[in-house]
């Protein structure tokens, strides 16, 4: 059952680049292996952390196809198909083969700031066209508009809508979603440092940024939380909490890419308009990364 396959820790993979800005498939392969060997339950390709906004249509296909091929069926894959043009998203979905993809992650429309009725109609249209189940993604800090609990509750009853990645940071909203959606509707944290509190409320896991830097510790924390062993989970949570905050101090994915560079997984190059993080933050992240991995 797909709900069980996507319970636990997913990671929103970065897209490694070479110094000249080209895609770095060797680095992406190392990253995928690093996550899987570290115990991550599933991979998310072409999310915000993957700098999908700066990838061409052809590059997106290359990244997703490479991820599917390199994964070799080892773990489930969730593919990002989102934007603020409903028709364009549907066209992209209809043009992809979806072999090796288990679900779609689709961010709530950004920039245009639709009403809640517009968000509902948008997701109904995507779910109706998608050959795989759809995970909603609410991240108002990026989209400029919160998808309310009422909207999520309404959509949770729609055919082909599997769950939500909830990154509002609003615990009250998360509790309303938890209480008023079907049990089989996946509730996934979109905030790394709120994952453990949300697990205590009944959430099913996380789609994480920091988990790809520290897959063993992070995925074990989630597994302990899902088992209800919050004493063991807290130890790992507090081991990671400071470095996780650092990762977002100057924007994402600059912080996590520096962790991966420190670990020798891939380089930390970004595409404009994202700029490299400061030297001071790099030093702090390097020290914190080495401390976590002692």
Automatic annotation (TrEMBL):
SMART domains assigned to the protein according to its UniProt record, in alphabetical order: DHDPS
* One of the Pfam families matching this protein, by short name: DHDPS
What SUPFAM superfamilies does the database record attribute to this sequence?
Aldolase
**Keywords associated with the record:** Amino-acid biosynthesis, Cytoplasm, Diaminopimelate biosynthesis, Lyase, Lysine biosynthesis, Schiff base
* Catalytic activity, as annotated: L-aspartate 4-semialdehyde + pyruvate = (2S,4S)-4-hydroxy-2,3,4,5-tetrahydrodipicolinate + H2O + H(+)
Q: In which pathway does it act?
A: Amino-acid biosynthesis; L-lysine biosynthesis via DAP pathway; (S)-tetrahydrodipicolinate from L-aspartate: step 3/4
Matching InterPro entries, A to Z? Aldolase_TIM (IPR013785), DapA (IPR005263), DapA-like (IPR002220), Schiff_base-form_aldolases_AS (IPR020625)
Top-level taxon in the UniProt lineage? Eukaryota
Enzyme Commission number(s) from the entry: 4.3.3.7
Q: Which family does it belong to?
A: Belongs to the DapA family.
What this protein is reported to do is described as: Catalyzes the condensation of (S)-aspartate-beta-semialdehyde [(S)-ASA] and pyruvate to 4-hydroxy-tetrahydrodipicolinate (HTPA).
Supply the PANTHER family for this chain: 4-HYDROXY-2-OXOGLUTARATE ALDOLASE, MITOCHONDRIAL, DIHYDRODIPICOLINATE SYNTHASE
* Name under which the protein is recorded: 4-hydroxy-tetrahydrodipicolinate synthase
Q: Print the organism lineage.
A: Eukaryota, Viridiplantae, Streptophyta, Embryophyta, Bryophyta
């Amino acid at each position: 059952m797909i709900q069980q396959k996507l319970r636990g820790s997913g990671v929103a993979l970065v897209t490694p680049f070479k110094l000249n800005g080209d895609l770095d498939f060797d680095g992406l392969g190392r990253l995928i292996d690093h996550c899987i060997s570290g115990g991550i339950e599933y991979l998310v390709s072409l999310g915000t952390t993957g700098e999908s906004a700066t990838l061409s249509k052809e590059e997106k296909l290359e990244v997703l196809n490479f991820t599917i091929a390199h994964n070799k069926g080892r773990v489930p894959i969730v593919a990002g198909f989102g934007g603020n043009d409903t028709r364009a998203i549907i066209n992209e979905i209809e043009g992809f083969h979806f072999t090796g993809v288990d679900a779609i992650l689709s961010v709530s429309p950004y920039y245009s700031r639709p009403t809640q009725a517009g968000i509902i109609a948008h997701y109904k249209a995507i779910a109706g066209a998608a050959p795989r189940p759809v995970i909603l993604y609410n991240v108002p800090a990026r989209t400029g508009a919160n998808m309310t609990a009422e909207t999520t509750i309404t959509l949770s009853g729609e055919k082909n809508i599997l769950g939500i990645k909830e990154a509002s940071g609003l615990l009250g909203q998360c509790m309303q979603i938890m209480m008023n959606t079907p049990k089989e509707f996946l509730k996934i944290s979109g905030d790394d440092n709120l994952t453990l509190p949300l697990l205590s409320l009944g959430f099913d896991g996380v789609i994480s940024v920091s988990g790809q830097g520290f897959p063993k510790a992070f995925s074990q924390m989630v597994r302990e939380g899902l088992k209800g062993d919050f004493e063991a989970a807290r130890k790992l949570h507090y081991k990671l909490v400071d470095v996780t905050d650092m990762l977002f101090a100057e924007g994402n994915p600059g912080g996590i890419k520096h962790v991966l560079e420190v670990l020798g997984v891939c380089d930390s190059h970004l595409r404009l308009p994202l700029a490299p993080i400061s030297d001071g933050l790099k030093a702090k992240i390097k020290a914190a990364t080495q401390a976590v991995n002692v």
